[in-house]
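Our platform keeps sequence and structure together, in a single record for each protein. Such a record has a labelled line for the sequence and another for the backbone structure tokens. The tokens are whole numbers drawn from a learned vocabulary of local backbone shapes. The remainder of this section carries one protein's record, kept here as part of the documentation:
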Amino acid sequence: MATVAVKHSITGTMAKGAIAGAAGTWVMGKVTNYLMDLQSEATTQQETQAMIEGKSAPQLTAEQISKQVGIPVSASQVSYATGILPAMFYGVLLDRFGRMGGGRGLLYGTLLFLLMDEIATPIAGVADKPSAYPWQTHARGLAGHLALGVVTYALFKLINR
């Protein structure tokens, strides 16, 4: 069955994308925290050693933003911003070009994982190169982003009818 694009206002569509992205980010946090609890202590130590100053990319990003703007920013706020902002534009793409679902959010989640975790954070200097981290870190990140993608897609489609 062909998907027909339904065009809503850009502002409303972006707001719906933001809501869906926030929900997807929340689910991603639950998935990644659960998987982190399952990993071995040795893996956790290897991961911590790979981190810059022993801090996660959202923690380092929050510290940098806080210094630049002079107000406190939390790692959680950074995580939600990096989940919500792309989802706003993803929502517009879904609304304007109905076939952009890419596996019902799986492609979106995969692309976010590759762009954010594997490319942007090392380039920004808030994470070491991907090869410094154990494979479990990448698997957990991909699983979390896949969950984010599916939830973002599903919720956006539900509220954008």
Residues 10-38 form the longest helix (29 residues). Helices lie at 10-38, 41-50, 57-69, 75-96, 106-124, 135-159. The chain has six helices and no strands.
